[in-house]
Amino acid sequence: MKIKQLVVAIAAVAVAAAAQASDSPAVAKAKLEKVLTCEQGADPEEVATLINTLGGLSIVQASPLSDAEYTVPNPVELFGRPVTKISIHRGMNADGDFNEYGALFSGESIDTVAKIAGITPDAAGTYRKEVGGHDLILRPEAGATYITCANDVRTIVKTIKRTAKNVGKAINEATTKKE
Description:
Blueprint: H1 2-21, H2 25-36, H3 44-53, E1 57-60, E2 68-78, E3 81-93, E4 96-105, H4 110-117, E5 127-131, E6 134-141, E7 144-151, H5 156-178
Antiparallel strand pairs: 1-2, 2-3, 3-4, 4-7, 5-6, 6-7
Helix pairs in contact: 2-3
């Protein structure tokens, strides 16, 4: 009897996983829109799967020198504006690895996109908004505006590591000055 229950449980998990892996285009579109606006995190493979579900095509293969770039035949809506070009970037900074997903607003000025996205520039003129552990960033690019969501740039582990590094640096500086 227990074996039968185990088999049924495993089958249910497999069916649920298959259903999740094969999202409908409408579900994939909604998820991708949330990822690109930093409302939801995702890994690069999941984003590529969402793009493929929407019939997207790779226009630039990822390499050590370039991001993966895709185009989707039907636009996804970001802040009420259509985008068809999407990129995936695996990044790294002093705090560790992160993934960045971007989309191109063709013909839209940075001021227009900033207004609809609710992003105001800081004193240095950088358009960045913290959304949970992610950063939503705008940058102008040849008559268009690129929006990127840097996923997991602030996590508990990264915060602990950064704090420990800063404490270590402060201790080093304090002990070096005494000598």
